[in-house]
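User: Hi! I'm working on a homework problem where we have to compare a predicted structure to a textbook description. Could you give me the structure for the chain below?
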Amino acid sequence: MSEVLVSVILPVYNCEKYIGDAIESILNQTYSQIELIIINDGSTDNTHGIIAKYLDKRIRYFHDILNRGIVYALNKGINESNGCLIFRMDADDISLPERIADQVKFMQLNPSIDLLGSKAFFFTDDKINSKEIHGNSYNSHNVIKTLLFLYSPFIHPTIVIRNSIKLKPYLYYSEDSNYGDDYEFFTRNAGNFRFGFFDKVVLKYRIHISEFRLSSSHKAEQYKLSTSRSRLKYFAKNIPNFNTGLVVHYENVFYNSLKINLVTLKKTILFFLYFKDFIQSQEFSKAEHKFIDLQINRKYYNSIYQFSKIGFNAFILYYKYSIKLGRFNILSEIKFFSKSVLKK
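Assistant: Happy to help. Predicted structure tokens:
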């Protein structure tokens, strides 16, 4: 494997507690041909003082006085990038030592892939919820494009993008998407990039406990509005005849922000029925189809589980619109939904 220059973009804002570990995880990579582009987006704590202590010549540090948001920082980093590959990194995460070497090798072996995602190990400071590996996807552009209708199959700080002339117009993030910038970027570029997935953990992704309690926060509401706009655009462009109201309803299901009753249960089931119809009309290999079905069913299970509190009437409606039409895995879903209802 020849070592080509790669650019690692690290936006930072008020992250004095973690920024040292993040920087060192990049500087200590087994792959040495890197430029670490750090964008300090107007931090008001001691972030600048910590960054300034690192004298490694591979670091290119930009310290902005004003806080202009994550999108500004990312786009500035992209504009400054000289490497043939652009790596994302967050200031509170830790890249594993062989991350860059592994992902560079994968991109060299798969020259048709423009944007690559990978797995990450999710952890918290107090070790709660720190045992699961997240980011399961499939190394197929068509599969990833399909999953984007339901959720983002990429963990943002694990991605790698080719920095080429033909992709240059598409590399920048939307200035209107400081919240949900990643999902907007992926859905907008699904027709411009070839997506791929590397089935290996490359990063430790830090989860902050406060993020588990964002359901009523301003940040969560802004994120929901942003992803809703992106999802509606993505459906309109790729499945123009899909019911817009059901897309909006799915967004509310996704964020657990809807009233739990038989009407909303019916809409939830109909969304997945119609989406299944779309899947059936597409051409996938047997393995791709199996993987997509598994991911859709997981989303479906998670969506209908919250309705189990309604009780027996919910099961009847579930039967009428789902099992009777034979659109889903009948036996497993009867078992799942029955157990959910009985628990209530």
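For your comparison, note the following. The chain has twelve helices and nine strands. The CA atoms of residues 27 and 66 lie 27 Å apart. Good luck with the assignment!
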